[in-house]
Design goal:
The complex is a heterodimer of chains A (about 300) and B (about 170). By secondary structure, chain A is of the alpha/beta class. Chain A contains 16 helices and 7 strands. Chain A is about 50% helix and about 10% strand. The N and C termini of chain B lie close together (about 10 Å). Chains A and B meet through helix 1, helix 2, helix 3, helix 4 and helix 6 of A and helix 1, helix 5, helix 6, helix 7 and helix 8 of B.
């Protein structure tokens, strides 16, 4: 299995734990990652809002770069994934639009055909590698740890475009969690948004939406939350401190601070494989992951 | 509106809106409210209501929406699109309305322009930065052993082509 690895802005600029852990664990599962040269932003969400054509241009541009390598494109981000799939769909539906984008891309020396597949990290792990093979690589099972699955909006909706998992009852991330020896369970807020896309318009509402979800997750007795999207990861992990700064305001009462450890899935997978936390960028998580990491990695080599 | 409007772009955006709107006359949207009940923003922000938004579009009252800041407060979670029994997508309507609002010169959150500007200049929305660990140590891509960040190899050409599209779109 060989894929063009598309990082996207957020991972490349600051969510290094997602990238480090993916680069560390995927090759151990037989996946060859080929770095892409000359990539740009996928266009979501600023261009989709202000210049739809600019959005399609940017996404098609990255797809053309992968086509150039003769490889399907693997994304580690829900936003980039949705952006690429949506763009492919729109260009297939509208020949004039496709022609327009193709002509613009030629000015950059690029050819777009739309022939490659867009692969989501959940699809790669669950459908193409399989939980059985993943379980075989586990040397440090995550025993006695209960983790909440947060697939994130753009991994599951809209179902009309074909998503890696079911829109109303996603289970694949759950299977990937239990493949590591951990426990999980469904919870009512599982398919709820992290709120991060609202940051541009309303900072407080963004934090409130995220806080509600984290509070629910904590209330159900989960030990932590797992995601496969760097936007959701950044929202829950990087901004948990900001949420706690205004937590009394958010819940309109004296509230305990949230303490929910947040992981990008491949970080946990690496720990279960017995890899050292620093090989997985776990020192970069800003949520309180220490106790869980120590519990899992206690016997790591 | 900018003078060098690209006809093809304007036609395409109009086409998108037609496609979205043609399916949502009053007979099609039953105003059942599944969109609003699923919406994470409607709970917290007064005035943001996908059901009412669709009603306004169906009644031809798009001007009100274009002027209002509510179209900028969608989180893009897509639950409205997923749950609609009539396959209407408030989310897609909102994206089209945003595109139209920008072209009509209405105000929108400043963050969008900053992102567009960054992409035009650097090819990416965010420049790679120094981050801190939980122990407050500094790390960047190089110190973590990650390859240098990518960007378009010919930035001038990239800026020229994408800039042309965006300017024609009425922004920037």
């Amino acid at each position: 299995m060989k894929y063009a690895l598309y990082l996207g802005c957020t991972i490349q600029a600051e969510q290094f734990g997602c990238e480090i852990s993916a680069r560390e664990v995927l090759p151990r599962l037989g996946v060859e990652l080929v770095d892409m040269e000359g990539t740009s932003c996928c266009g979501f969400p600023a261009f989709s809002s202000l210049s739809t054509i600019g959005w399609f241009y940017l996404s098609a541009r990255n797809l053309a770069l992968a086509e150039n390598l003769g490889l399907d494109i693997l994304t580690l981000c829900n936003g980039c994934y949705a952006s690429f799939v949506e763009t492919k769909h729109n260009l297939e539906e509208n020949a004039d639009l496709k022609g327009f984008i193709q002509e613009k891309l030629r000015q950059e020396g690029l050819e777009y055909t739309g022939d490659i597949r867009v692969i989501h990290i959940i699809e790669l792990l669950h459908d193409l590698i399989g939980t059985e093979k993943i379980s075989e690589t586990v040397t440090n099972p995550l025993k006695g740890i209960k983790l909440a699955a947060h697939p994130g909006c753009h991994a599951i909706r809209p179902s009309s475009l074909g998503r890696p998992d079911n829109a109303e009852n996603p289970q694949k991330l759950d299977h990937l969690i239990t493949a590591l020896g951990a426990e999980t369970m469904d919870y009512p807020e599982k398919t709820d948004c992290c709120g991060s896309m609202l940051a541009t318009a309303s900072g407080t509402t963004t934090l409130t939406i995220a806080a509600e979800k984290l509070k629910a997750v904590e209330g159900y007795g989960f030990d932590g939350l797992v995601t496969t999207c760097p936007f959701c990861f950044q929202m829950f992990d990087g901004r948990q401190g900001e949420i706690n700064d205004i937590i009394d305001f958010i819940f309109d009462t004296d509230s305990e601070e949230l303490e929910v450890p947040i992981f990008y899935y491949t970080q946990l997978l690496g720990l279960a494989m017995g890899l050292k936390p620093e090989k997985l960028g776990l020192e970069l998580n800003l949520s309180p992951v220490d106790a869980l990491v120590e519990k899992i990695a206690g016997g790591a080599k | 509106m900018s003078d060098d409007i690209d006809k093809e772009q304007v036609e395409f955006v109009s086409l998108l809106l037609q496609r979205e709107v043609s399916e949502m006359d009053a007979e099609v949207c039953e105003q059942c409210g599944k969109c609003t009940s699923a919406c994470p923003v409607a709970i917290y922000m007064e005035g943001f209501n996908p059901r009412r938004l669709i009603a306004k579009v169906a009644l031809g009252r798009t001007d009100e929406l274009l002027e209002s800041d509510t179209i900028w407060t969608c989180t893009s979670c897509l639950k409205c699109k997923e749950r609609c029994p009539e396959n209407i997508s408030p989310y897609d309507v909102i994206l089209v309305l945003r595109n139209l609002a920008v072209r009509a010169g209405h105000p929108y959150p400043a963050g969008y322009d900053e992102t567009i500007k960054a992409v035009l200049e650097y090819g990416v929305a965010q420049q790679p930065r120094m981050v801190r660990t939980r122990a407050h140590e500094r790390r960047d891509r190089a110190s973590l052993g990650l390859p240098p960040a990518e960007k378009p190899r010919d930035m001038k050409k990239f800026n020229e082509v994408l800039g042309g599209i965006v300017r024609a779109g009425g922004s920037g």
